Amino acid sequence: SVCSGVKATSLAWEPLGFLPQWFSEIEAFPSEVLNHHWPNVPNLGDMTDGFISRAGAIDVLVGGTPCQSFSVAGFRGGLDDERGNLALEFCRIAKEKQPRWIVWEQVRRLTPRECERLQGMPDDHTRISWRNKPSEDCPDTPRYKAIGNSMAVPVMRWIGERILIVDKILKEQP
After folding, report:
1. Active-site residue among 67, 91, 115, 138?
2. Does the annotation count 91 as an active-site position?
3. pLDDT (tens digit, 9 = 90+) per residue, 92-102?
4. Contact partners, residue 50, CB within 8 Å, separation at least 6
5. I want to staple 154 with a disulfide (CB 3.0 to 4.6 A). Which of 57, 90, 120, 122 is the partner?
């Protein structure tokens, strides 16, 4: 996944048998959440720095590029805002890697625990030890940002189930 956030997709799809091969996340707090829950999955970092050559083949490309450059919640700078160009970079990666499936989404912000619940995550999924503080003192701001930029687990599970259904149908065809 690119712009991986805190990986609602993995929470939704791992029970279906999908396993993350790598993440691409540059924000410090979401990167720590990923490392906390998936310590053996590499974070390839910035999606714009040529990491794609290290990514290997892709079956399902998942990403949630920032929406602020297009949204009324942001400055609406469009492609003049470097975040807006991440949507084009996502499309370039998809074109180059030719995954079987592409899931691209945009999200909204909520508060930490309510957001985790509404996004289908377990309570305190993002409440981790952070910057030499115990998890009990994990600040809300990075949690709020990370969860608010995440994908919803139930939605991603539904999409994953549909991928399995279509794959089964395709395998049964002569």
Report:
1. 67
2. no
3. 899 999 999 99
4. none
5. 120
